[in-house]
Amino acid sequence: MSRADKNEAITKADMAVFQQERQDLETDLLSEVLNSRRTAWWAATGLGGLAAVAFAVAGLTMYRYSQPVPAHMLVLNPDGSIQQVSLLTPQSTYGEVSDTYWVSGFIRHYETYEFNTVQADYDAVGLMSGPDVAEQYQNRYKWGTKEAMDKVVGDRKSVRVKISSVILDREKGIATVRFSTTEKYRSRATSEEPQYWIATLSYTYDNTLLKASERYINPLGFRVYSYNVNAETAAKVGG
């Protein structure tokens, strides 16, 4: 008997049953995959909804109980000086930063006295001042005369400047500056007690033609047209 005769013959009916069973198995598997995906989607949607509700509740609570924070506060330092402190993240514009820089720089050049750099301060004030302020500066220090500070004092004394706060009214071009000056004599081991001042100045930016060397000092044409300084009394410093 041949080998083919020993094996059972596969009929068409057997093949039909096999194909039906295979088709049923694939259908069940596909149905299970679809059900799993549907379940996962509903779970994700539910979690997303819960998260949205939680964020909404948290935001409403913060808005309900939050209080507005002032932009600045004046604080009294241990040495008696007043300093402006920002309570918010700085959001200054370029114009505000630029104005503050030039206003502060002008006061430092005007009020500082250091024998070795007096010429640089003199040049800077001259380029940053209108006619009246330049004359005021000239008369105060008597530059170019025998009574000039660099001739009378020389390098025996220096005056340092510390800016405490700068408050700008940019629309009107007016700045109010709190600062202190501290004198130091070479013959003394310690500095003198600081003195406190309030300066009010008006400023603008001119398109005046300048030499290249002058542009290095005052590239934007910053000009101060009025400058007034008053001593800050103990009562004001404390209040």
From TrEMBL:
Transmembrane parts of this sequence: 40-63
Region forming the signal peptide: none
SUPFAM superfamilies attached to this UniProt entry: NTF2-like
Gene3D superfamilies: VirB8 protein
Membrane topology of this protein: Single-pass membrane protein
Subcellular location as annotated: Membrane
Annotated Pfam families: VirB8
Boundaries of every Bacterial virulence protein VirB8 domain copy: 25-232
GO cellular component, one term: membrane
UniProtKB keywords: Membrane, Plasmid, Transmembrane, Transmembrane helix
Source superkingdom: Bacteria
Main location: membrane
CDD domains: VirB8
Gene Ontology biological process terms in this record: protein secretion by the type IV secretion system
Protein name per UniProt: Bacterial virulence protein VirB8 domain-containing protein
Origin species: Pseudomonas mosselii
